[in-house]
């Protein structure tokens, strides 16, 4: 039973009581509180409100994982891979299905160079959180097929677009045997312009087992490379090791 189910059961009990007492103010207050709780659950993966949203590794070692969303992009992903290879850093790429279909050689290269290639939906719609379980499952399955066809691997992880979730997210993922991945630190690299400020934000949230969310899609390549190079240098200086996501979650 998820936290969502517990909150709904409690809300039903309180509302049933309010109706018996003809206390419509209490009835409305309970409904409002339920909606607020659901809003926080949708927006904050770390609450694990609707299901097992994995947001960090459980070990106590000074290890972190880098994850990149929204690619692959012809220019940004290619140059990022060059940097990661030079730095000997493994990462996880949560790729959009339609971008994999448009760049199958890049998808294959991600896997060939030792990184994880995972599911980030097919179209990355802003309305994904309004999809039914069936529709979301179909979109995830479509992405699974495209990734396997392009790279030869079958994703084990799914990160919802924008990180939003609801009960359908976990039902659809479970049907495809996908674990739902969130983050410990959201870099806001698509919003913050300065690589230095992005790295400073990440450092403020650093902790052993952190999953760091970055992007290799829809971001200027020069900014991406400067951010990642600075971040890697900073992590080393602080005594952190970057490991692949699946290693962090062992």
Describe this structure in words.
- By secondary structure, the chain is of the alpha/beta class.
- Helix content is 50%, strand content 12%.
- It contains 10 helices and 8 strands.
- The chain has helices spanning 3-20, 24-43, 76-87, 97-102, 104-112, 133-151, 167-175, 195-204, 221-237, 245-248, and strands spanning 63-69, 92-95, 116-119, 157-158, 179-180, 185-186, 210-215, 241-242.
- The strands form 2 sheets. Strands 1, 2, 3, 6, 7 and 8 form a 6-stranded parallel β-sheet that branches. Strands 4-5 form a two-stranded parallel ribbon.
- Helix 1 (3-20) runs antiparallel to helix 2 and helix 8 packs parallel to helix 9.
- The H-and-E topology, N to C, reads as HHEHEHHEHEHEEHEHEH
**Overall pLDDT:** 96
- What overall geometry do the principal axes of the alpha carbons give? globular
Strand count, sense and barrel status of the largest sheet are:
6 strands, parallel
Q: Termini separation (Å)? A: 24 Å
Content of β-strand:
5-15%
Count of helical stretches: 10
Radius of gyration: 20 Å
Low-confidence stretches: none
Helix content estimate = 40-55%
Class by alpha and beta content: alpha/beta
Strands, total number: 8
Topology:
Layout: H1 3-20, H2 24-43, E1 63-69, H3 76-87, E2 92-95, H4 97-102, H5 104-112, E3 116-119, H6 133-151, E4 157-158, H7 167-175, E5 179-180, E6 185-186, H8 195-204, E7 210-215, H9 221-237, E8 241-242, H10 245-248
Parallel strand pairs: 1-2, 1-7, 1-8, 2-3, 4-5, 6-7
């Amino acid at each position: 039973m998820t936290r969502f189910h517990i909150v709904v059961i409690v809300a039903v009990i309180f509302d049933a009581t309010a109706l018996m007492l003809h206390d419509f103010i209490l009835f409305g207050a309970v409904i409002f509180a339920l909606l607020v709780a659901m809003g926080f659950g949708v927006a904050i993966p770390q609450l694990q409100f609707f299901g097992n949203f994995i947001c960090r590794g459980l070990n106590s070692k000074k290890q972190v994982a880098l994850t990149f969303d929204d690619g692959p992009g012809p220019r940004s992903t290619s140059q990022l891979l060059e940097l990661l290879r030079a730095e000997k850093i493994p990462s996880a790429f949560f790729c959009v299905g339609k971008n994999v279909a448009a760049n199958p050689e890049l998808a294959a290269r991600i896997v060939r160079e030792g990184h994880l290639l995972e599911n980030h939906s097919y179209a990355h719609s802003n309305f994904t959180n309004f999809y039914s379980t069936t529709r979301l499952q179909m979109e995830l399955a479509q992405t699974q097929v495209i990734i396997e066809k392009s790279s030869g691997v079958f994703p084990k992880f799914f990160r919802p677009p924008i990180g939003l979730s609801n009960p359908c997210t976990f039902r659809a993922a479970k049907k495809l045997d996908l674990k739902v991945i969130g983050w410990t630190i959201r870099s806001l690299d698509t919003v913050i312009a300065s690589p230095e400020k992005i790295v400073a934000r990440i450092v403020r949230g650093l902790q052993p087992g952190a999953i760091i969310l970055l992007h290799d899609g829809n971001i200027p390549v020069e900014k991406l490379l400067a951010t990642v190079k600075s971040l890697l240098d900073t992590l080393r200086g602080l005594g952190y090791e970057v490991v692949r996501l699946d290693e962090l979650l062992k």
